[in-house]
Design goal:
Layout: E1 4-9, H1 16-20, H2 30-41, H3 48-59, H4 66-76, H5 81-84, E2 102-107, E3 118-123, E4 132-139, E5 144-150
Antiparallel strand pairs: 1-2, 2-3, 3-4, 4-5
C-alpha cells in the first residue's frame, strides 16, 4: 500500500444535507470522496432513495445510471454488512459492527494515479483478504474528485450470525 488517510465520523450521513455538511464534502481529494462514498452506502437498507441522492452528489456531473442502481441493489440487498465492513473494528465475528466513532482508512498503491485526472483508491474490509478498489475522476475546472465506479462491493466472508458453520 502507498499512502493512506483515515477519516472519523461521529455519525454516518442519512441524507444529502448531512453528507454535504461534513468537512470531507469539499471533495478536494480522492481520499475524502472515497470515505464519503462508503459512509453514504451504509445508509442503503435504511433509505435507498436518500442513498442514491448522496451518491449522485458524490458522482458530480454524471448521476447514477439505472445500471449502477441495479448493481448496488444486487450487491447490497440483504448484505448491508459489506459497507460497514470497511470501518475499523468490523469483523465477521462481531457481525461487522464497527467501533464508534466510525473510522475508515483509504489508501493508494503505486498505480493509483497512473492516468491524469483519474485515481483508484483502496478500502480494506474486515471480511476480505485484500483491499478493494474505488475508481474516481477529477474535474479539473473545480479540482474536485468524483466517484466513477464503486468496485469494492464484491462478496466478503459472511457475518458469524449468518454462518451455519460458525
Amino acid at each position: 500500500m502507498g499512502t493512506s488517510e483515515t477519516f472519523t465520523f461521529n455519525a454516518l450521513p442519512a441524507n444529502v444535507s448531512e453528507l454535504q455538511a461534513l468537512p470531507e464534502a469539499s471533495l478536494d481529494s480522492p481520499f475524502k470522496t472515497t470515505a464519503l462514498a462508503i459512509a453514504a452506502l451504509c445508509n442503503y437498507e435504511a433509505n435507498v432513495a436518500a442513498t442514491f441522492e448522496m451518491l449522485d452528489f458524490l458522482k458530480g456531473p454524471e448521476p447514477l445510471s439505472n445500471l449502477e442502481k441495479q448493481f448496488l441493489k444486487d450487491r447490497l440487498l440483504g448484505k448491508q454488512y459489506k459497507t460497514f465492513s470497511f470501518f475499523a473494528g468490523a469483523t465477521p465475528d462481531n457481525n461487522y459492527t464497527p467501533a464508534k466513532p466510525y473510522s475508515i482508512t483509504v489508501g493508494t498503491t503505486p498505480y493509483s494515479f497512473d492516468n491524469e485526472n483519474w485515481a483508484v483508491m483502496y478500502v480494506t474490509s474486515g471480511g476480505a483478504d485484500s483491499p478493494r478498489p474505488v475508481k474516481l475522476r477529477k474535474k479539473p475546472s473545480t479540482g474536485q474528485w468524483f466517484i466513477n465506479e464503486i468496485q469494492c462491493l464484491s462478496d466478503i466472508r459472511i457475518p458469524k450470525e449468518s454462518d451455519p458453520w460458525a
